Fold:
Amino acid sequence: MKSATGRSLAEIASLVVILALIVIFFAQASPVFLTQRNLENTLLDITTIGILAVFTTMLMIGGGLDLSIGSTVALCGVVIGALQASWGILPAAGFALIVGAFVGLLNGFLVTYVGINPLITTLGMLSIARGLAFVFSDGLTIPVFDLEGTQIDAYNTFTQLGEGQVLGLATPVFVMLVLFIFGLLILQFTSYGRAMYAIGGNDKASQLAGLSVRRYRMIAYMLSGLSAGIAAVLLTSRLYAADPRAAPAMELTVITAVVLGGISLAGGKGTLIGTALGVLILTTLLNGMKLLSTSTDAQNIAQGVVLLLAVGLDQLRTRNINWSRWLRGSRVVPSGASAKAAAGGD
Amino acid sequence: MSAPLLEMRNIEKSFYGVKVLDDVSIDLFAGETLALLGENGAGKSTLIKILNGDYTRDAGEVLLDGQVMRFTEPRDAEAAGIRMIYQELHYAPELSVAENLLLGRLLHRQGALGWMVDWNATREKAREALKLLNVEIDPMTKMRDLSVVEREIIEIVKALSQKARIIVMDEPTAALTPPEVQRLFGIIRDLCKQGIGIIYISHRLDEVFQIAQRVTVLRDGKHVGTRPIAEVTNKTLVHMMVGRDIEGRAEVRKNTAAIQRSDVVLDIAGLTKQGAFEDISLQVRAGEIVGLFGLLGAGHNILTQTIFGIEKADSGSVRINGQATQIASPQDGKRAGVGFVPLDRKVNGLVLGMSVRKNITLSNWRVLAPLGIFSQGKEMTNTRLWVDQLGIRMAGGIETHTRYLSGGNQQKVVLARWLEANVKVLLLNEPTWGVDVGARSDIYDQLEALAAQGLAILMVSSDIEEVLTVSHRILTIYRGRLTGEFMQNHATQEKLLHAAAGGVS
Structure:
């Protein structure tokens, strides 16, 4: 019998090997790749993906899916930009978090109480949030800094979120690491984390065991939306601007990374360690390609291929396909003949 | 006697170095029903899968009419006339009987219209096939409008119309009512008359005595013996399957008088749900096991679901320990001290990809994780306690995923969960469905021990022996109404069946 932990350790190990191979390849191919500057920039670049991936992981372990996170990042950013003058920058940023959480809550409500398929629900929300972002910004990028010079302290504080440092790390990177560790602890030690695994593994049985399946699902969607709010605050602060086009197709990148890290679309299994490796592999690959002056189109293609490979391998693993039979093709072996072919059949 | 139709000689098979079949030989004659018995894990299904070409054997040979056969996939076995009728049938519910019978082989028109299905010819061909077994089913009926036994019969007709010579039936009666079982047995006897060999797998010994001519028993991958049915008794068969004697339980008489003086824990009055059950009133006392016996679809399963809060009642009341309780969801049920062991433990009872520990503690987070954070030591201690007390056996300790447990041990995990949640009332639905004989007796022991500790148990079952064995008191239900009440020492199979079939007691 294969032990479950043994198998997931093997999965983690193979991800580490893949990451190592990618790093070695790009280190050979590009002189810039292993420089401190590039590594720091890459790390800062992945903060949005990383933060979203933590909560997408929890959601997907619980059997959920959220395609609207990228659009929600844009919407939350635009909310900051639109409200900064009248509300003050810090209340506007705080409100952006609430907007994110609310979008997530709405997704959760539609999925659990109305019963719309998560894919459809969040696909609809993807469109709505992006549309609202354009409405509230008139389709323009909104500068986010102290135009009138009346709130210098507040803007300084806000800017620190994106540009400051905590414990020698860029603040966004620090926030990402804190959320990551927070997520690890939640999944490992809390009833909420346990609920995600139970519900994703078998929601019917969880329901019959007396768990409030709907409530846990709602919370998971809300946290997913909230993480988009957090990512939006950090991104807006770092870029001094709120762009309704921000985080384009970010949900795709995040889900690709998460699935690559071993989270099943069916839910119930996976770890944040896997997700971290998935994020690193995918972003390193995309960063390396950028350094080699590959076009964004090629990067998009690569990302799509990685997504399909990751999901495809997951499917094959869970279905336990009989490869030798598949490769041999189906043919009837007559009695007595070709004993070898038959013996090799299992 | 003539040469056997099928011989499987000295079959061996290992998975990951574990021998699951060790030198197993069986034979089957034309026109015979051979019962294949054994506990879960004895190797029955592996043997059958080898016969069917799903698995290849490591050693041994399969002979059909004395000819050595090599099956590498089910298609080969099918071509040789070997058919499987599985417990779960595969059919297209929205298509007609005729279409299901002739799926992939529908008759087409002639000439230029050859791309069109000739429905008249198809219907006629289906009717002919149905006539082979004298089955009165309209070939144009939709598959989903048939009863379970009729669907099974269609599956058999399909096998016959494709020139089956050997039909393997895996627990074909699991979902059938007693009259339906008799109908199926009639069909099986007809098949035998037509010279077809039947391998019949079942957990129900009484069926084996009714239908089989010989019986082969496997235990732990080994062939224990093959005997003519006339030479064995229930007791010898169980001994062959389990390797030891199982206590004759029917003789254990219970101290029901003391129980009838204890407090009423579960008190249901006038519970009604339109279309499911009507005006149900019953009481279960502390320490009492009440069996609720009915045929499938009599409403007893929905009744327990309603008590637990999965379904809503239209009227009536539920009192627990004398307190009126509103239970609108399983969470309410759990809070009120009610535990629910569902019908299908793999689908509704367990999170198969989670460990024994996490499954056992799934309903007790309030205590084990009071502020949302688990007290790991306490969780371990409690889990071990239940594993020891209930005798849950698994290969890799309490972190083993429940997927890898046998049916009996899985059921014990579900039981342990509610004990861990400290419930006062336990609602059981067919507690030993698909559990083998040895583990079944073990579960009965546990239920008795739990009752002795003061738990009130309401057990829904369609297995009459089980009801007679375990219950202190038995209620019968027919079409949603209670039709009889028997103390254990007054109950007999005849009385229960009579009452459960709607007869006045």
Q: What stands out?
A: The longest strand of chain B covers residues 18-28. The mean pLDDT of chain B is 85. The two ends of chain B are 50 Å apart (CA to CA).
